[in-house]
Every structure is written in structure tokens, then in C-alpha cells.
Amino acid sequence: MKKLILTLTTALIIGQIATVSAQEGPTLRLSLPDAQQYAVEHSYTMQNAALDVQKAEYTRWQTIASMLPQVKAGFDYQNMCGYTMNFGGGGSMMSMIPDSITIGGMTLPISFPTSTTETETESGGIAMNPSGTFSITASVAVTGAQIVGIILNNIAKDMVDVSKRQTEQTTRSQVRSIYVSILVMEDIVGLLDSSLANMERLEKTTQESVAAGAAEQIQADKLHVQVASLRNSINANRRSLTMLYNSLILQLGADVNSKIVLTTSLDDVLDINHLAKLTMDKFVIDSNYNYQLLQQNEKLAKRNVTMAWMDFTPTLSAYYQYSAKTYFGKDEGFNMTPPNMVGASISIPLFTTGSRYAKIRAAKIDYQEALNSKQQAEDGLRVQYNQLCYDLVNAIETYQIQKDNLDVTKRVFDNTTEKYKYGHASNLEVTNASTDIITAQSNYIQAVMSVVSAEVALENLLGK
After folding, report:
1. pLDDT (tens digit per residue) in 165-207
2. Would 433 disulfide with which of 112, 157, 406, 416, CB 3.0-4.6 Å?
3. 109 Cβ neighbours under 8 A, 6+ residues apart
4. Domains and CATH numbers, the chain
5. For 147-169, how does the pLDDT look when each residue is reduced to its tens digit (9 = 90+)?
């Protein structure tokens, strides 16, 4: 049964390897700066941030366009189904219709065909022939709210630009964290591989000594357990390494079947001199993206107060209309539609039961809250800067200690295994040395990631 399970497992692994090989994508050789730039250019998060900028620009132009002349055309068809207009009485209707008519101060002539035999019925009515009217209307309306709205849209666009730069900063930081994690994990796997080779040689030598009667089986069994534990730790790290590569591919926005090759070494990334200088950089709060967003929010709140006042401003509007009416009967009908018309108006708000004043007061309160939030954030960012500098210094010191500890633990392990070969070290000492090296590598990984985390947090705060 165990043999069957082993065979099925092996077949499954081979099948997965074959599938991955068949779908293998391009190989990307990336330094850390190249990986960060690749993510900025290809990640979906950055693509959405760029689209938000375009959307904000289109929104701004919508407001601008609302202040420009709006032109529309139309065609209206009327058919009264043979209806005849009858004013009552006998005789000709022409004597009852004036020569002109006045509408809105404009005097329009009224003309009819000289012959009334077609348009007037025998009873004195006027036939209402089918007609169609083609019209073009151009209008424009300007309010104070529209002008302030353009300013508000400009501020909103600036906020989207800041958010885009902040998204780029976050993307670069995330790529850096994953990149460093992969480098650390690869170093640890290499270290544990060499330790595993030593332990396997010790296990083999001890097993041979047991066979020769020079050692007890319990010693060989203990070494076997240590070898299995060390191998399990290596396998766990390799699985974590695979997950990190997958995370990096997703962060980059690359083909999911791509193979990533990192070309920057861990020592180049963890430049202690650069990190130390970072803690001495002057904190320019205007470079912080969160603070920039608060500044834009303050401007937005201030303009909203102006927008509230715009409810008191008049609305100006003007229009021009051209109309051409055509009758589809044999003779022209009763046409009272002027071909050209212009107009203008002004609307002034007078009384709204105090709602506009309440809106203004509410906008002023929002503005004051925006000022308070900005001041609170400014104080908090300055305190945070000092704390992050301390955190980075502590992380660097811990990293240097854990790096030295890992080196010492590795040398102790090698020395202990060498002594064990000649009977100068006990099985317990070998076991302890093996456990220590696993613990040291775990502490080392944690120390490296603490440095990266502290560095990224400080750089984000400084707006780098």
C-alpha cells in the first residue's frame, strides 16, 4: 500500500513538473531598480491609478463644457388629418384675418395665397395642411457655481495626481520587500543545504560505526531525526521561496508563467551606510504624500465655502433659434413661426428661508475641521519621523548582531560535526548545534525583514 501511494505521488509530481515546463514563460533578469520600474509600468494597480488621472481630467472638461454654447437641432412633423379651421359665419375668411400680428413686441406679417380656392373650403374654413419644422437652437448659461466647480475639479485632479505618485511609491516599496525576502530565503536555503550535507555524512558515518559495533543505534537514530528536521526546514523554506516568487510576479504584473532571476545581491540591497545616512536626512513635511493630500483637502474645503456663496449669484443665459417651417400641401398654410429668434435672461435668487446661509455655515465648519486635521497630521508626522529613525537604528543594530550570530552558529556547527567524527563531541552537542543553526537562521530572517520594513516606512514618510 505504501509503495502504491509513493508511486502515485511521484507520478503526480512528475505530471505537475511537465505541465509547468510546457507553460514556461519568458525569463526576466531583474535588478532591484529594474523590478521596481517594471512594476510601475506593468502592474494593474498602477494602470488603474493612471486611468483615475484620465478620468479626473475628463470630469474637469465636463464642467468646462457646460459653460460653452450648446447647440441642438430638431425636426417636428404635424399632420392634423384633414382638419379645417373654421371661425364661424359665412363669406370669405380672408376678411376676418388681420394683415399682421404682434408677438412679444415683434410685428409679423401674415400672408396667404392670392387664390383662396384651394386653402379655403366652401364653408369659409382654412384647411390645416401637414407641415414640418426644422430648427437649430444655440444656448449658453453661466453661473458662479460653474466657475467655482472648475476650480474644484482642478483641485480634485491634483489630488488624483498625488494619489498616483503615492501608489507608485507603495508599489516600489512592496517590490523591494518581496525582492529582499527572496534574497534572504535563498541565502538561508544555501546555508541549510551545506549543513544538511554535513549532517547526512555524520549520519552515514555513525550508521557504519553501529554496524561495526563501535557506536550505539540510539546515536544513529538521533542523527536521523536531526537530518529529517533539517531537511523539513529546507523544504519549508523552498516552498516559501516559491510563494515569494509568485507574489513578485503578481506585483510586477508579469506573465504568470515567467521565470524571475534576481541580479542584485543582498549586500547591495542592505547598504548599512546608506541606511545610516537615511536617518540623518532632514524631514521636509511637504514631500510627504499623505500631507500633500491633506493640503489639497484643505483647499477643497475652502473652495466649498466659496461654492456655497455662489447660491446668491445670478444666472445668465442667452439663446438663438432658427426655424424653417414647410407645408406639404399644395398651398402654404397659416404660418406664424418666425424664422429667427434671440433671447437673454438673468435670474437672481431672492429668498430660500435661510437654507443658503445654513449651507455656508456648514461649509465653514468643514473647512475648520480640515485645518484641524491638517495640523494634527503635521504634528503626528513629525513625531512619527523621530520614531521611525529610532526603529531603523535599532533594526540595523539587531541585524548586525543576528548576522554575526548566524556566522558564529555556522562555524560552531561545522566545528562540532568535525569533532564528532573523531569522537571529541557527543551526539547531544551535535543535536544542539543543529537546533541552534535553525534558530539562528530564523532570527536572521526576522532581523533582515525588520530592517527592510523600517527603511521602507521611513522612505515613505520622507516621500522618497
Report:
1. 999 999 998 999 899 889 988 888 888 888 788 778 877 877 8
2. 416
3. 99, 100
4. 26-66+146-307+355-462 (1.20.1600.10), 88-141+318-347 (no CATH)
5. 888 888 888 898 899 999 999 99
